[in-house]
Design brief:
- The chain has helices at 30-41, 67-80, 95-103, 147-160, and strands at 6-11, 19-25, 46-52, 60-64, 85-91, 108-115, 119-125, 130-137.
- The strands form two sheets. It has a five-stranded antiparallel sheet, sandwiched between helices.
- Helix 1 (30-41) crosses helix 3.
- It is 30% helix and 33% strand.
- It is α+β, with helices and mostly antiparallel strands.
């Protein structure tokens, strides 16, 4: 007989609206490789990461260089409880600065989101454990940008230094 699957959602706790990356990997060395990917991309970045091991000891593995961000990552990883998932909270850099390095790690399978928005994670749970089905990242669109919003968007990108001019 097949056991039923329960569905639930977990809200990512992010009281300071920090940027974070939520993903899925497959190997215990992920925690060290993620550390190296962030520090190798943005040496001055502050971050904390947690990785939910899905075999062996099934521990939450922690890394980072900011104890407060490590604690925040740990708390969210425990709330998610989804095997081989990871979460990285960032300060002094943006996901765009580290995302390609993270995606290029040979053991990273999926990035669910990279955002500072409010996020809900949709989970399935069976007798085996929990898995992430997807995320709700922020809010639904309220309309389509017009000329003023285009101007604001381009000014913001230049303010951040991502575009010239």
């Amino acid at each position: 007989m097949t056991e039923p699957v329960a569905f639930t959602r977990v809200t990512i706790e992010n009281p300071d609206e920090l940027n974070f990356i939520l993903g899925h990997s497959h190997f215990i060395k992920t925690v060290e490789d993620l550390f190296e990917a962030v520090t190798g991309s943005v040496p001055h970045a502050r971050f904390g990461l947690a990785f939910c091991e899905a075999s062996g000891d099934c521990l939450v593995r922690l890394e980072g260089n900011d104890e407060g961000l490590r604690k925040l990552a740990r708390k969210n990883a425990l709330a998610l409880g989804a095997g081989h998932s990871f979460i990285i909270f960032l300060k002094d850099c943006y996901p765009i600065n580290v995302l390609n390095a993270i995606k290029n790690l040979q053991e990273v399978c999926t990035i669910y989101c990279a955002t500072a928005n409010p996020v809900e994670v949709i989970l399935a749970e069976s007798a085996l454990g929990r898995g992430i089905l997807g995320v709700i990242d922020g809010f639904s669109p309220r309309g389509v940008e017009g000329p003023e919003e285009v101007k604001g968007r381009t000014e913001l990108l230049r303010k951040f230094g991502y575009k010239r001019g």
